[in-house]
Amino acid sequence: MDVIFAGGTVVDGTGAPGRRADVGVKGGSIAAVGDLSGTPARERIDITDRVISPGFIDMHTHSDVPLMVNPLAEGKIRQGVTTEVIGMCGMSPAPLKGPNSDAIRQSSASKGANSLDWDWQTYGDFLDRLTDRRPSVNVVPIVGHIPIRIIAMGFERRPATAAEMAVMQGLLREALEAGAHGISTGLVYPPSSYADTDE
């Protein structure tokens, strides 16, 4: 083994009670869990009276822009978060095109957003930029309904027409094909709050 974390309480995420076990890591992956007291390792770290577990998944984040600004995400890593789902509440920084691009930018803005170039248009462009930043966490991207609706029909306070729905469907399809894992809505936030059930 490269490293053995010895004597900790393993909480494995299955719902089973925590149990005392060693965790062996080889080649960057967990290779063994159990009594590894007789197993040779280059390094042995005593974690007695500590808990060891797989990384946590943060299912509701607004880290789309923060991960671009600070890809190290130390605040998340130090809490044990290794995966973030981004694009919640209907908000995502892409797609970013059309006359209302500034409104899309503002809906996704957060600390440090002004330091970004915002030089993407499609959701795929955004994902490419995010990948180039090499975030320290795994990312599950979700495209927001808000930018899609703004591109299709601005801030109109009414149901979408068939033509506007077709534009939204095309933008969603493009985002899904580029790597989005789904779409999120924030039905209390304008302009998503103007959508009807059909939309």
> Class by helix and strand content?
alpha/beta
CATH architectural category of the largest domain? Alpha-Beta Barrel
DSSP, total strands = 10
String of helices and strands: EEEEEEHHEHHEEHHE
Give the class-level CATH name of the largest domain: Alpha Beta
Q: End-to-end distance, in Å? A: 54 Å
Shape: elongated
Mean pLDDT: 94
> Spans with pLDDT under 50 lasting ≥5 residues?
none
Q: What count of structural domains?
A: 2
List the helices and strands and how they pair.
Elements: E1 3-10, E2 19-26, E3 29-34, E4 43-46, E5 51-52, E6 56-58, H1 64-69, H2 74-77, E7 81-86, H3 101-108, H4 123-133, E8 138-141, E9 143-144, H5 145-153, H6 162-178, E10 183-184
Parallel strand pairs: 1-4, 1-5, 6-7, 7-8, 9-10
Antiparallel strand pairs: 1-2, 2-3
Helix pairs in contact: 3-5, 5-6
